[in-house]
Specification:
Blueprint: H1 2-7, H2 9-39, H3 44-69, H4 74-94, H5 96-110, E1 119-123, E2 129-136, E3 140-145, E4 150-154, H6 155-160, E5 162-167, H7 170-177
Length: 182
């Protein structure tokens, strides 16, 4: 057993340093995401979703660096990653709308002028919507229409269509007035 540690001492030290560095980067990044989310009054579920995205990304980066630490050559890793990305490319092409909605969800986390409770109007010539934002998820928004129906609206369409803020915090105003906000 001591022979193992003597032979792989450099790799074990490098791996330990990598884990500590990635842990620190993850902690700082998650702290920044939580700070941005809290400052912008973003739902806690959305904040934790972005933190999970950060953790998975750092894990994948760490696995790549660990391969180099353990002696894998660039050519070996390039073959593995090109094969994996080819398979993922074909799979994601088949489900491009899911990837588009997730990407839009991340963009909306950092730069989205509307919050839960806001009454908005989506200017779509085929299906115009005037509704209150009930929830913002990774793939779609939950909207409450004027007639009381609930609609899920894809995140990617929210970034593609013109949207007007009709009333800020319509849910809170509804509770204050004792009347329907819509």
């Amino acid at each position: 057993m001591t022979n193992f540690f003597n032979v792989y001492k450099d790799q074990l030290i490098s791996t330990t340093i990598l884990i500590v560095v990635l842990f620190c980067i993850g902690a700082i990044t998650n702290l920044l995401v939580k700070k941005i989310g809290t400052r912008n009054h973003i739902n806690e579920a959305r904040i934790s979703l972005i933190c999970r995205y950060v953790s998975v990304s750092l894990f994948l980066i760490g696995a790549l660096i660990e391969g180099f630490i353990l002696g894998a050559r660039f050519e070996d890793i390039a073959v593995i990653f090109s094969s994996v990305f080819a398979i993922l490319g074909i799979a994601l092409f088949a489900v491009w709308s899911i990837l588009s909605n997730v990407t839009s969800g991340i963009i909306m986390f950092f730069n989205f002028p509307y919050k839960i409770g806001d009454k908005i109007e989506i200017h779509d010539k085929d299906f115009p919507i005037k509704a209150i934002i009930e929830d913002i998820r990774a793939f779609h928004l939950h909207l409450k229409l004027e007639n009381g129906d609930f609609v899920t609206y894809p995140n990617n369409l929210m970034l593609q269509k013109a949207v007007t803020l009709v009333e800020k915090d319509a849910i809170e105003n509804d509770a204050d007035d004792g009347k329907d906000a819509i």
